Amino acid sequence: MIAMPHAAPPRLLGVLLAGGLSSRMGTPKALLPHPSGGTFLTHSLQRLQSVCADEVVVSLASEDHREQLRLPSSVPALFDAQPAMGPAMGVWVALQHAASNGDDGCLFTPVDLPNLLVDDLLTLVRAWRESPRQIVLAQQEDPERLQPLVGIYPVGCVQQIQRVVESDHRSLYRSLRSNDHRTVAISRERLRNVNTPADLGPPFDNT
Ligand SMILES: Nc1nc2c(ncn2[C@@H]2O[C@H](COP(=O)(O)OP(=O)(O)OP(=O)(O)O)[C@@H](O)[C@H]2O)c(=O)[nH]1
Ligand SMILES: [Mg+2]
């Protein structure tokens, strides 16, 4: 009997998108206290680390931004190639890094979704493993809406994302909704996005 070699499981780099200006909040969203303890930054970092083991990086605007957020030097960070270009820049830089690092894809989450659960990320990972060359994105339920910052992008789509970065709109949503991708349904409450001080109350529901 010939022993069949096991295919290595696909390698996924966890990327926490935290390079925004938080201009609507007026204070860094990453440093907001999370209801279950720590900050939005530490909470979302741990959430990602529990899915991507030790392969997690934080996507930031610059080295100064790392200092502003007091991110420990033990946590690897990637910096935008140009400032204030929006999240597509963070996605593009991370995909280039993953490709040169031998990873197969990146699992992205933003720092401002305090109710997202590890289980949601595991659902994305399972869907991606069925078809690792396709983008898989969270789709908010009721009303349906694609959430391009919660998803897994294979390294093969780096050129597609470069075109988004170079476009006038730089909108991942606009580009991805009309291009090939798979979706995983996640409830509106779990995808609750905190952008303004008003979004912080009433208290989040983590059940
Ligand atoms: N790397 C990187 N991440 C970004 C950039 N802009 C936004 N993000 C991240 O993408 C996610 C969604 O961004 P927004 O909701 O627009 O947050 P923001 O840009 O910090 O806030 P506003 O300034 O109010 O728009 C957040 O996790 C941000 O930290 C950017 O230019 N570079
Ligand atoms: Mg923004």
Automatic annotation (TrEMBL):
Cofactors: Mg(2+)
Keywords: Cytoplasm, GTP-binding, Magnesium, Metal-binding, Molybdenum cofactor biosynthesis, Nucleotide-binding, Transferase
Gene Ontology terms, MF aspect: GTP binding; metal ion binding; molybdenum cofactor guanylyltransferase activity
A biological process from GO: Mo-molybdopterin cofactor biosynthetic process
Compartment(s): Cytoplasm
One Pfam family, short name: NTP_transf_3
Top-rank taxon: Bacteria
UniProt cross-references to CDD domains, sorted A to Z: MobA (cd02503)
Residues given in the record as Mg(2+) binding sites: 112
GO cellular component: cytoplasm
SUPFAM superfamilies, per database record: Nucleotide-diphospho-sugar transferases (SSF53448)
UniProt-listed Enzyme Commission number(s): 2.7.7.77
Catalyzed reactions per annotation: Mo-molybdopterin + GTP + H(+) = Mo-molybdopterin guanine dinucleotide + diphosphate
Residue ranges of every copy of the MobA-like NTP transferase domain listed in the record: 14-176
Binding site for GTP: 17-19, 80, 112
Function: Transfers a GMP moiety from GTP to Mo-molybdopterin (Mo-MPT) cofactor (Moco or molybdenum cofactor) to form Mo-molybdopterin guanine dinucleotide (Mo-MGD) cofactor.
The family this protein is said to belong to: Belongs to the MobA family.
Domain notes per entry: The N-terminal domain determines nucleotide recognition and specific binding, while the C-terminal domain determines the specific binding to the target protein.
Protein name: Probable molybdenum cofactor guanylyltransferase
